[in-house]
Amino acid sequence: MPEPLFTPEEQLQFDRGIDELLTHYPPDRKSAAMLPALRHLQTLKGWLPPEGMALVAQRLGTTKERAYEVATFYVMFHTEKPGRYVIDVCTNLSCALRGAEGLLTYMEQKLGTHAGTNGDKYFLRETECLASCGTAPCLQINEDHHENLNKAKVDALLEKLK
């Protein structure tokens, strides 16, 4: 028998959260709550399990395919269970000009992984833009933003993850 999606406490949190989100949308536009509803699910589970996306879709009166389309469009959503630390390294133009690609290669060597590889501990990703062009290069670790990076600063950040 498959493991249930939620513990009883998580189910209560999910239901209350979705109910609260829906108060911000007209009843005939519930599907407009897709982004915050998926975010709520990911906050509870750490990722977006398929059965969770189907439940979100059901609650919003849309299809599970629509929930999946939205979830796979945005890099902030995880449709596979990520490693303990999700590390997003911006390599867009401003960051690239300030050495981000070299820092990404350096991190791959230090972590023993490649960008795009999801392991138990690290999910290292190259991402397009983290909106810190004036403080490039930058990265995020589990949504904590870090700017003006160099190898020494990266070393200090990675040391904290051990």
Descriptive notes:
There is one protein chain. This protein is α+β, with helices and mostly antiparallel strands and 162 residues long. It folds into 2 domains: 8-73, Orthogonal Bundle (Arc Repressor Mutant, subunit A); 85-160, Glutaredoxin, CATH 3.40.30.10. 46% of the residues lie in helices and 11% in strands. Strand 3 and strand 4 form a beta hairpin. The two termini are 36 Å apart.
Distance between termini?
36 Å
Query: Rounded to an integer, what's the Rg over CA atoms?
Result: 18 Å
> Would you tell me the overall average pLDDT?
95
CATH class of the largest domain: Alpha Beta
Class computed from helices, strands and strand pairing: alpha+beta
Q: Segments where pLDDT lies below 50 for 5+ residues?
A: none
SSE pattern: HHHHEHHEEEH
Rough outline: elongated
What distinguishing features does this structure have?
162 residues, alpha+beta, Glutaredoxin, 2 domains, 46% helix, elongated
Task: Outline the fold blueprint.
Layout: H1 8-22, H2 34-45, H3 50-60, H4 64-73, E1 85-90, H5 93-97, H6 100-111, E2 122-127, E3 139-141, E4 144-146, H7 151-160
Parallel strand pairs: 1-2
Antiparallel strand pairs: 1-3, 3-4
Helix pairs in contact: 1-2, 2-3, 3-4
How is this structure best summarized?
Helix content is 46%, strand content 11%. It is an alpha+beta fold and 162 residues long.
